[in-house]
Amino acid sequence: MRKNKKVKKMDSDFSVCTDNLKEEIIVFLLGQPNVGKSSLLNAFVGTKIEVSNFPGTSVEITSAEKIFTIFNKKDNTTKEVKYIFKDTPGIYSISDRSVEETITKKAILTEKSDVVILIANAAALGRSLYFALQVMEAGKNIIIGLNFFEEAYKKGISVNTKKLSQVLEVQVVPFNPITGNIDNLIITASEKACNPNIKNYCTEYDDHIEELISFIERNVKDKLPARFVALRILEEDDDFTGQINDHVKNELEERKEEISDKHQNIKEDISKIRYGTASFITEQTTHITPLKKTRINEVSFADKFLLHKIGGPILTIIFFVCLFSILIFAGQAIQELFLWIGNWFINLIPENYWQVGSFSFLNLFRDGIAGLFAGVAIALPYVLIFYLILGFTEDVGLLPRFVVIIQRFFDSIGLPSKSFISIMLGLGCTVPAHSSTRIINRRKDRLKTAFLFSFIPCSSRIGIILGIVGFYGSIWLALLIFFVEFISLLLWAVVLKYVIREDAEPLLIELPPYRKPMLKNVFAKSWLRMKDFVKVVIPLLVIGGILYSILEQLGVTGFFIKPFDNIMGFLFNLEGEFIVPLLFGFIQKDLTSAMLINVLGQTGVQALTNLKLITFGILACTGVPCIIALGMMLKEYKIKEVILIFLGTLIYAIVLASIIAHVGMLFI
Description:
Blueprint: E1 2-3, E2 14-16, E3 24-31, H1 37-45, E4 62-72, E5 77-87, H2 99-110, E6 115-121, H3 125-137, E7 142-147, H4 149-154, E8 157-159, H5 161-168, E9 172-174, H6 183-194, H7 207-217, H8 226-234, H9 246-258, H10 266-285, E10 286-288, H11 298-306, H12 311-347, E11 355-356, E12 359-360, H13 361-396, H14 399-412, H15 419-428, H16 430-436, H17 443-452, H18 459-472, H19 475-499, H20 519-554, H21 557-572, H22 579-587, H23 591-606, H24 610-620, H25 627-636, H26 639-663
Parallel strand pairs: 2-4, 3-5, 3-6, 6-7, 7-9
Antiparallel strand pairs: 1-5, 4-5, 8-10, 11-12
């Protein structure tokens, strides 16, 4: 720390007033789904975290760091402080009913934090306070950030933050991460972290439950707050029942039996009292102004149609038809432009220069650039447009409603409704889709969903279908592949329904309000999802083009391809060269299109028959998509399950493509 009386507040990121400014501050972000945790994290550290308006985006702890220069008004000094922000999965309460709740509970209780920012929804304060009361019972150094303050006001709800702070004995700070109104929140959190005060509101239960709590408190072995542990034991949390010995457990059961006439279910009674307390505090600290009845409720009006039994599915189908129409026509226009630019640039580079014998080093550069332009022209337009539309849909709040609409259909094929969230992510990239299956509670349902990703075209596969089959064949051929993939998925799902039996699980999902999409957020999310393409795929496109050029100039490609001539010809009526883009595609799916053009040339691809385009499209777009996805599968599932998924869908893809190749000769 350096003293300098001439330092002004404007020289720092923000100012605090504390006697103990730390070198490093760990900040935990807690809250229920859709309260704005990820948005706040982005506001703190910049656009580094993907923000989505539907549950399931965060299924693990997300960390981000930033160094702030802080001006301390206490001693008129500045200091650089490292902040470590940890964003936890959104949960409704501390329990162990889902993977998200287990992860967040473990983080709250075991990981170090200097301060906890619990984010509450001003428009649904009572629901947020239930979780807040549990966190305060856990003895955390907490402040409450009140989000959607303006949105609540528009609904006629105003929160008296001063009174709420007095009741809860914690500081309550309104903020808005979208407008950047977060200074008071980070200042309050910093001062709280440097001067911890864990004197929080304590929920009082009736005399019988309080007696049980006191009895357990005297006998717990855990270092955690004894009252919190006692409540978790009474709420039948398996993670805490081992904190008391068998003798105490037996006596506890006897005491429960003595009050069974007044408390038939202590777990439910504790929950009811906590909910009642949260509701009472909400009533005391909020004021509701009735809105004019002449104004139409836009949200209810929209949901009246979108969630209708018949209208909802129709509107959902229309949405996806529009989505793919935009992908097709806008993507093809951009692809033509990129290909024209690529051909113009490549024609400027002479062939067969800088030679050593018959080997041309300039051809390496030329082929590397050709691979780059081919991959970018075919993959980038469709990937980018898809992510822009997906980001817009998320921000508006449509995706959770699609989950509700799809519920009955998914029940009929034996899938949990939450699979739809993973499937939507799978349309972007299969890697996060596998990770997102953690939001599915039951392992059998996770496994069934994981099987289906082999038939769901990710954005890179969409690029292959539209950029190769649709562009060099016809849109109808591309649509035919989408149809075949969809039918394959349905057949596979029906088979899994009877092989992996599991009763239907009730759907519990929050429908966020419709919100005006923030273009900055939409573009930021699209970039976050696209950055791997830019940072990883583009270099691979160049390397792939150069590598194939080396093999071609050395005359050894035939050596590698020849063994596949008979196999590819017998199974799929394709030449052995097609194995090259398929193998490169397993390294990174975006390489498939570029390597096909490298191997055959644009003239060769244009000369392909419709049947060969369809067969190649099916082979490239069915099965485990790439080695990165395989790595994520090994992380998420058991090795036996991964082998079963990999081999099962690979055989399925080979059989399917072979049938199409041979039967198609009769019709195409």
